[in-house]
Amino acid sequence: MKPNEHMEDMRKSYEKFTLSEEETGNDPILFFQKWFSIAEEENVEEPNVMHLSTVSKDGQPSGRIVLLKGISENKFLFFTNYDSRKGKELEENPKAALTFFWANLERQVRIEGSITKVSRKESIDYFSKRPRVSQLGAIVSKQSSVVPDRNYLEKELERYEKELEGKDVPTPEEWGGYGLAPHRIEFWQGRKGRLHDRIQFTLTGEGWQKDRLAP
Predict the structure, then answer these.
(1) DSSP letter string over 66-122?
(2) Which of 120, 132, 159, 194 is catalytic?
(3) How many CB atoms lie within 10 A of CB 157?
(4) pTM over cut 0.85
(5) Can 194 be counted among the known catalytic residues?
(6) Most exposed of 2, 44, 67, 101 (fewest Cβ within 10 Å)?
């Protein structure tokens, strides 16, 4: 057997739940929060893990896993280094997509929208609540830049640990939050035979329009 030849036979039948138009209501933000709460109650590991997709100015998409850190004023919040690859791409093209996948529940949520930075105060407030080791890591890591080796990072961490011993760790100027204001949100519920339930909300001038999509 060739390596990974078995991939074509890997499949699962999704049969746990269904999703109707009535269930989703008329506010996709509220329904997302409902699904998120269910994911927490069902002990989904890290339910706030999401795939963030960005696109560079020359049209090259890229993706990575980040953490949702709140919903404020109908915006999905996350934090990062503004000088990272994703930060630079969001500066060039302030549009992005988020995808949540909760395998235990056979559900995913797809969100598309525009990006803005949160206020400096919000970034500092959140940074102050992070574990100290994560605060120090944010200072050590010039995210997405080339480093000589792992030892370099370890030595930099040791240096800042000594330098800031007994002091508050300052929020780096290049570190902060983003908010994604959605214009499209899709709720996907796995179903038997790949006839999945897909309910899509699209923001119009009159509010949210709801449609069922073919799987």
Answers:
(1) EE--EEETTEEEEEEETTSHHHHHHHHS-EEEEEEEEGGGTEEEEEEEEEEEPPHHH
(2) 194
(3) 16
(4) yes
(5) yes
(6) 2
